[in-house]
Amino acid sequence: MLREGLIYLSESGKAKKVLTGLPVTRGMSRRFVPGETVDELVGAIKEANAAGLAATANYLGEAEKNEANCRAAADVYYDILDRIHTEHLDANVSMKFTQMGQVISQDFLTENLGRVLTKAKEEDTFIRFDMESSEYVDPTLDEFQGFWDQGWRNIGVVLQSYLFRTMDDARRMVELGTRVRICKGAYNEPPEVAYQERHEVDQSFLDAARLLIAEGNYPGIATHDENMIDGVVRFVTEQKVPSDRFEFQMLHGVRRDLQQELVKAGYRVRVYIPFGVSWYPYLMRRLAERPANMLFMAGSVVKESPLGFLWPGGGRNGRGE
Questions:
Q1: Which of 61, 79, 286, 293 measures 20 to 30 Å from 280, CA to CA?
Q2: How many H helices and E strands in the chain?
Q3: Considering only CA atoms, which of 90, 82, 99, 95 is closest in space to residue 44?
Q4: pLDDT digits (tens, 9 = 90+) for 56-80
């Protein structure tokens, strides 16, 4: 019921007009989505860098079927790459194949994305291709390997530990030698393809993280779950893995206290910073994917406050990240 309601709100023009005008809605969005323009994005990256955090920039958008919109998204990423280079920012970018024209045609995607990849290669900036729901896993990984086989090496992908297939996909990416971000996954997946129990998702996450750290190429360990972080820290300590062999990754605005704790402990932390005019559907759909994310985001704010110890779970989140 709650999920259907959130989806309705994400698609309703009237609801958008009302909700985006409310200070509480815009205030929440500003916490997790710093703005709509590249200038606002760059400001957020600079704040992150000043706090000792690296960043990855994401221009909001996906499943685009209009060529003009796909070209416009490529233009935005081109601008971001230029700003990262000219302003010496500690940042890279994250994008979706579907935002760049995957659903239009292979030729269009290759042409549209090619100029962005060329720009990133010229400026030695890394590009990560985000993962969507389970139906997009094969198209995303196959598309990625196609670009990899063409010789692009400054690219990487994302895997989600709640899917049964993830360990096989992780081994495939290790064999390629590419960089992988491992997260738990935020979509509401059916039991035919995904673990439904938290302990199973957690175990899959730790198994994949250990494989990627031991045998992979500079993985991103993306989680706000302190149990998962503790498990990774124990593993790298026992195996004497240098801290420059991997990095932790978190969402912008989520568990900023924990981000700083890891930085102080000597680990590299990167924050995922989304921006763009699509912030409203992004926020609502993220909550709709898993309504528990609403409690998770609210809990992040509470746990950073002096009353954080009152939050159930003492800082441990569920499947979301």
A1: 79
A2: 13, 8
A3: 90
A4: 999 998 889 999 999 999 999 999 9
pTM of the complete model beyond 0.70? yes
What pLDDT, in 10s, does the model give residues 2-11? Answer: 445 544 444 5
pLDDT at 9: 47
Among the listed residues 128, 179, 181, 255, the single catalytic one is 181
Ranges of residues in the chain whose predicted pLDDT is under 70: 1-30, 279-321
Q: Tell me the two tokens of residue 237.
A: 């300590």
What letter would DSSP give residue 245? Answer: G
CA distance 69 to 87: 27
| Alpha-carbon gap, residue 56 to 80, rounded angstroms | 11
- Give the total residue count for the chain: 321
Q: Which of 130, 169, 202, 225 is catalytic?
A: 130
Cβ-count burial 2-28 (b if 16+ within 10 Å, e if not): eeeebbebbeeeeebeebeeeeebeeb
CA separation for the pair 89, 139 (Å, rounded): 32
- Reported in sequence order, the residue ranges of the chain that DSSP labels E, i.e. its strands, are 54-59, 91-95, 127-129, 155-160, 179-183, 220-222, 247-251, 269-275
Per the CB < 8 A criterion, the answer to whether 227 and 186 are in contact is no
Cβ count within 10 A of residue 190: 8
For 264-284, what is each residue's pLDDT tens digit?
999 999 999 999 977 666 666
Q: Which residues does 279 contact at the CB level (< 8 Å), separation at least 6? A: 29, 33, 36, 60
pLDDT of residue 167: 98
For residues 103 and 66, the answer to whether their CB atoms sit within 8 Å is no
Instruction: Write the DSSP symbol of residue 305.
Output: S
Q: Which helix (H) or strand (E) holds 48?
A: helix 38-50
Active site residue 198: no
Q: DSSP string covering 86-99, please?
A: HTT-SEEEEE-GGG
Contacts of 94 (CB under 8 A, 6+ apart): 56, 57, 58, 127, 128, 129, 130, 272
How far is it, in rounded angstroms, from Cα 81 to Cα 124? 10
